[in-house]
Amino acid sequence: MAGMVHFFLNGEEVQTTEAAGILVLDYLRQRAQLMGTKEGCREGDCGACAVLIGELEGERVVYKPVTSCLMPLGELHGRHLVTIEGLNGEALSPVQQAIVDEGATQCGFCTPGIVVSLMGYVMEDGAEITSNGVKAALSGHLCRCTGYRSLKQVEPYLKASIGEETGIEALVANGVLSAYFLDMPERLRAIPPFGSQNGQVSPEVFIAGGTDIYVQQGDALPEIQVHVLNLHPEMKGISRRAGYLHVGALTTFEEFARDPEVIRLIPEIQDYMFLIASWQIRNRATLGGNIINASPIGDMTVLLLALEALLVFRDGQTSRTVPMTRFFKGYKQLDRSPSEILTEILIPEPAARTRVGWEKVSKRKCLDIASVNSAIKVRCEDGVIQEIGLAMGGVAPVPLYMKETMAFLTGRPISAETVQEAFPIAQREVAPISDVRGSAAYKRLLVRQLLMAHFTRLFPELMQARDFYETY
Ligand SMILES: Cc1cc2nc3c(=O)[nH]c(=O)nc-3n(C[C@H](O)[C@H](O)[C@H](O)COP(=O)(O)OP(=O)(O)OC[C@H]3O[C@@H](n4cnc5c(N)ncnc54)[C@H](O)[C@@H]3O)c2cc1C
Ligand code: FES
Ligand code: FES
Fold first, then answer.
1. Would you say residue 421 lies in a domain?
2. Ligand 3 atom, smallest distance to 146 CA
3. Residue 263, domain member (yes or no)
4. Is there a domain that residue 460 lies in?
5. At which of 189, 218, 247 does a domain end?
6. What is the model's pTM?
7. CATH classification at residue 62
8. Between vectors from CA 166 to CA 237 and to CA 132, what angle results, nearest 5°?
9. pLDDT value at position 299?
10. Which of the four pLDDT bands, split at 50, 70 and 90, describes residue 170?
11. 364 is in which domain, residue-wise?
């Protein structure tokens, strides 16, 4: 991808021919000389580099905090990039004042990123300021000196100063945000789409959210031709048609979890997000990237595998559909050629009364990848398991579709005894290895525990944890 990247940086219009694969963080600090955005881990783990990205959604611009250390400059085309400098006014904003009043900053290194994420939180239309909301907004931020207690306590200060007046218009009216935010919808609409002004260049690498590929190949990407997939809005969005939920491959984790159709299918999806990355990463990480990265412990991958999703690929003018259950061939080996783009994920609509569950165990409860994760869909009728989809991650070189365990459970009465009888079959199916995420024996234990957790969580009226422990 080569050509002019045209965007707004705070209140200023920018047109640049810098390489599309340069990190937004590096652009800000090295080219634009805006040092308020800090560089910490460069791996999405600390939140020091958080910025807001504003994107047109209909008539409005919607802002989300993201980590600029994993985002390509090319993706800024047609967007509004807001840094801490663009949020500063004449006086401290209520968010900054809350941090000062609560003594929630010492060296100040983490503070700009924290202010950015908290501003992103109160800029959401109708956002209610709550203690859990503040915690969720700060989920991706590390503070080495002050500690989190004071940070969590900013909520009453925010509530007192901002109250119900959240959303961009209210914040501008109250002098919390600069007036230039109000012109942004019109100014962004005036930027022509990227493709309309540039010749086609054969790219070497696809970048979606960038949250895996920049961690793996961060030094190489600014030097090569990259294809920034997020410049294709048609690969986003969720709709229900012809027996499938059609999910664009560029749908982020956060967009997926907030979609009403997804919530109907997976009622606890928003609770699951608490155990997956941080808000800033979930605003970037796409479902497609999770699948193509092919980690055996991808959280969305395991969920989509249990739901027996289909993958739609495009290569030039040709397209084909592959069942996810046959997609993973070996460790990071896929039924896909390097030029194929995953455009859509089709989730078959389960029959009525199907229950869906997801479980994850990791070394650290939040902001950690799984030791073992698992997802299940089960439909029972008259006390008998009619249909089941089961997947486990972290127990084989690939995300594992548990065919033998599923075959055993299908047609059996649903009870703690049946689930217990399935344990040895599941153990024969998995082949975990010992690594930093746990020993093989520990992962085998988790296979049993997660199977138990699925059934006790989804069928509390039929079985509880004690039904299992009494027999051990
Ligand atoms: C701090 C941090 C925490 C994380 N926590 C979790 C976690 O809790 N759970 C979890 O599962 N993952 C986690 N991840 C990993 C990562 O966020 C996910 O795997 C994410 O889904 C990757 O998606 P992406 O859009 O960022 O992919 P990218 O990094 O953009 O791409 C990944 C790979 O897929 C290819 N690709 C992407 N999209 C397409 C497409 N549509 N067609 C063809 N090829 C494509 C790219 O070329 C690349 O090879 C974490 C990452 C970070 C940095
Ligand atoms: S520098 Fe740590 S998240 Fe970006
Ligand atoms: S105040 Fe020093 S890192 Fe947070």
1. yes
2. 1
3. yes
4. yes
5. 189
6. 0.95
7. 3.10.20.30
8. 80
9. 98
10. very high
11. 357-469
Q: Report how far ligand 3's centroid is from the alpha carbon of 108 (Å).
A: 5
- For 219, residues 6+ apart whose C-beta sits below 8 A from its C-beta are none
Task: Look at ligand 3, atom 4, and give the residue with the nearest C-alpha.
Answer: 143
Distance 288 CA to ligand 1 centre (A): 8
CA of 128 to the centre of ligand 3 (A): 26
- Give 289 Cα–ligand 1 centroid separation in angstroms: 4
Amino acid 198: pLDDT: 46
> Average pLDDT in the 120-124 region?
96
- State which of 272, 283, 292 you would mutate to test the pocket of ligand 1, scoring each by most atoms of that ligand within 8 A of its C-beta: 292
Q: Using the mean position of ligand 1's atoms as its centre, give its distance from the Cα of residue 109 in Å.
A: 27
Q: Whole-angstrom Cα distance, residue 310 to residue 241?
A: 14
Q: Is position 203 within any domain? A: no
| Nearest ligand by distance to the CA of 144 | 3
pLDDT for position 199: 46
The two beta strands, 318-323 and 328-330, are unpaired
Q: What is the DSSP letter of 157?
A: H
Residues 280 and 376 in one domain: no
Q: What is the CATH number of the domain that holds 276?
A: 3.30.465.10
Closest CA to 341 of 321, 315, 322: 315
Q: Are residues 123 and 140 in the same domain?
A: yes
User: CA 61, 67, 69, 70 torsion: positive or negative?
Assistant: negative
pLDDT tens for residues 346-399? Answer: 999 999 999 999 999 999 888 889 999 999 999 999 999 999 999 999 999 999
Give the ligand 3 atom nearest the CA of 144.
3
List, for residues 58-98, the tens digit of each pLDDT value. 999 999 999 999 999 999 999 999 999 999 888 899 999 99
